[in-house]
Amino acid sequence: MADIITRGSGAPEFLVLGLRLRPLSVGHLWLLNDIGSPLLSGKQQSFRDVLVAVFICSQDASKSQQDLGAWWMPLLVKLWMFKCRKLDIVAEANTFSDYLGYWLEGPETKDVEGHESSSYGSPYVHRLIASCASGLNMTPADALVMPVRTVNFLLAALGEMRGTVKLWSQADQEFWEYAEEMDRKMTQQSKN
Questions:
Q1: Which is it for the CA torsion 131, 134, 137, 139, positive or negative?
Q2: Which of 16, 84, 127, 170 is the residue whose CA sits 20 to 30 A from 184?
Q3: DSSP designation for 115
Q4: Rounded to whole angstroms, how far apart are CA atoms 95 and 175?
Q5: What is the DSSP letter of 9?
């Protein structure tokens, strides 16, 4: 089902450390969270951190989970690090960051009266899986293979239908741009 939704969606392809990354699934996000990847939190990251994250996201999450515990994984990491030693690791990490930014994106929303946003203690990926199960009637196994971006958009649409979320529309954007232009003009006039 996830392939049907992302196929032909115009999603950009991301190539990092010589590998083509798959659409970021909930399962990929689960694994990155599980290993404490600093690429999710923006903390200081090493070449090895980028390499392991790329390894996880370059294949199905279930295969990555299986391979991470393989006896040959430490050897592969050393060999791959040697092979990629001349690459600009900062540029590669930035491309991976762009990949995360694209796939973690959801639609812009507005506040709805009577519904305040909350702060949560559980990790984002756990909330995604719970929301898929409760809101979209998916099994956790089905949720794990769904692209995160798709889940975010589906959950936003569901929230809009339930009246708990209001999506940012083209009319909202046009009004916002008009208000910003008026604000610039007023500021410019007050300076003169």
A1: positive
A2: 170
A3: B
A4: 33
A5: S
pLDDT, one tens digit per residue, over 97-133 is: 999 999 998 888 766 666 566 677 788 888 889 988 9
Q: Which amino acid is at 160?
A: E
Q: How far apart are CA 161 and CA 102, in angstroms?
A: 24
Residues 131-162 pLDDT 10s: 889 888 899 899 999 999 998 888 888 888 88
Name the burial class of residue 160, with classes exposed (0-12), middle (13-18) and buried (19+) by CB atoms within 10 angstroms of its CB.
middle
Contact between 27 and 145 under an 8 Å Cβ cutoff? The reply is yes
Distance in angstroms (rounded) separating the CA atoms of residues 9 and 26: 18
The answer to whether 148 touches 29, Cβ cutoff 8 Å, is yes
What are the tens digits of pLDDT across the range 18-29?
999 999 999 999
Task: Identify which of 101, 134, 118, 149 has the alpha carbon closest to the alpha carbon of residue 2.
Answer: 149
**Pick from 141, 143, 119: nearest CA to 129:** 143
Query: Residue for token digits 């959950």?
Result: 155
